[in-house]
Every structure is written in structure tokens, then in C-alpha cells.
Amino acid sequence: FGGSLEFAEILKKKCVNKKLPIFVEFECMIYSGFKNDSGSVWVSGYKKGLKMAAYPGKLTNFALETLTKVYPELSSADNIIETGLSNGNSVAHAPILALNAGWAENQDMEPFLFYWQGCTSGVGRVVEGVDEERLALGKALGIQLFSEKEMTLKYYSYQGAHGKTISEIYRTNPVYEWDYAPKTFQHRFFLEDIPYGMVPMENLGKILKVKTPLITAIIEIASRLTNQDLRSQGRDFRRLGLQDISKEDLLDRVRTGI
After folding, report:
1. Which residues form the Opine dehydrogenase domain (predicted)?
2. How far apart are CA 184 and CA 186, in angstroms?
3. Environment class of residue 199 by beta-carbon count within 10 Å: exposed (0-12), middle (13-18) or buried (19+)?
4. Residue 93 half-sphere exposure, CB side, CA atoms within 13 Å?
């Protein structure tokens, strides 16, 4: 979330008086897969209907024309805030791992499937609660977001995912059949998805006056589990000069790049 904003700020400082490139963000990685060895990967899934946006947003259609030559099923989002808020990894990974902490630390005895076994109905309700906070952020900005349930079905229903709850959908998704849980808390589910997903969402909530108690709780729990201050490592809006920005100015910033 907000990678284009941070990268653009760095380049502005390093490349004074030079034209910046067009930045493009996808909702998520278009492929699901695993590294086999140093020279090959196994692609286990392909996300249909993925959205993208450019920064500045006024160049999104231009970028889409180029990218659809490679990925013809791509569609455009309103802006990079929409794509940033549409990354389901930030909603699912950290809550599931945090709520299975004991099992994750004891996998020498019995490894477990992260989604199929880890996302029980109760854990799924917490994921849905985090998702409700994410949707509230979008609503406050006038952005109509898909729920995590809708997104997962959009990406994977053609491969067999189905259900009414997030637990049911995750546990019927064949793409997740081989997704084993991390055996350590020093893993991207915490070290990436919280600093670069949940922390910016928490920051955005403060700007928009939207409460994010579950997001805040997961950040705190994961920081304790990893023995790191994940919030201070995150993409803080103060570092981007956005701490006092209004909703209207934020939307204008991502549209114009200025």
C-alpha cells in the first residue's frame, strides 16, 4: 500500500529536474505459486479480473493499453489507493498466522495447511472483521471496494473456490491445497503484510476518522510475536508528508502526482 508514493518521493530527491517514470500498481501478484529450486517455479494459480492503477492516476488508461498486451484480462482501478486497499494479503495473512501462533510454533510435530486448516470459522470471522474495517476506509474515500470474499471468488471461482463465508471460500480453494503455514514468525506474512499493508491502513484510518480496532490489535499482537516494532518499520504517512493531508487533497495527489 502506497509503494508508488514512497518510491516517487525517493526519486524526486535523487533525480531532481528529471521526468519521473509512470508507476503502476496491481491489486496483488497475478500468479500464485512456489519456488521449486534456484531455476524454476511452480505456478499453482492465476488471478482473473485483477485491477491496476498508475501513479499519477491520470495516466492509468495509457498504462492499461500497454499492459493488456501481456495480461489481456486486466482492468483499471480509480487510483493507487483503490489497488492498495484491494490487496487481500493484508487482510488475511497476519490474522490467520496470529490466531494460529501456537500451532505455527509447533510444526516440527505436525505441519498444517495455512488456509485449509488454519482459517476455521472463528478465525474466518476475525478476517471478515478486518475486512470490514478495510471496506470502511474505502467507503470514506468514496471508493467501492470488493469484499475479501468477493475478491477471492473473482480470482479463483473458475478453479473451484466457493462458499458463503471467508472460511468456506478459503477451504474450498484448490489453489490453497499446498499452502503450508510458516514455521517462523519472522516471515513476510508479518514482516511485509503488516508494515506495508496494515500500518498504512491504520494511518489512513486516522486521516479519515475511521476506527480500525482489529487492524490495530493485529499489529500489536504480531509485533509482540516477532519481538519487533512493526509499526515503526511500516510505511508511515508522516514519512511521505501525508500526516496532515485532507481526503480531497489525498485523492488529488494520487490523480495528478503533485
Report:
1. 77-225
2. 5
3. buried
4. 20
Backbone angles phi, psi at 79, to 5 degrees: -165, 180
Specify the range with the lowest mean pLDDT, choosing from 72-76, 91-95, 171-175, 242-246. Answer: 242-246
| Residue 204 CB partners (closer than 8 Å, separation 6+) | 137, 210, 237
CB 72 within 8 A of CB 48: no
Angle between helix 213-226 and 121-140 (nearest 10): 120
In CATH, which of 1.10.1040.10, 1.10.10.10, 3.40.50.1000, 3.40.190.10 is domain 3-256? Answer: 1.10.1040.10
72 CB-near residues (< 8 Å, 6+ apart): none
pLDDT digits (tens, 9 = 90+) for 24-33: 999 988 888 8
pTM of the model: 0.90
CB count within 10 Å of CB 218 equals: 27
> With the C-alpha atoms ordered 94, 98, 99, 100, is the resulting torsion angle positive or negative?
positive
First to last CA, the chain: 18
Sign of CA dihedral 110, 113, 117, 118: positive
Exposed, middle or buried: residue 102 (CB in 10 Å: 0-12, 13-18, 19+)? Answer: exposed
Residue 241 has pLDDT above 80, yes or no: no
Distance CA 44, CA 247 (A): 39
Give the contacts of 44 (CB within 8 A, at least 6 positions apart).
32, 33, 34, 175, 178
Cβ partners under 8 Å of residue 65, min gap 6: none
What is the identity of the amino acid at 252? Answer: D
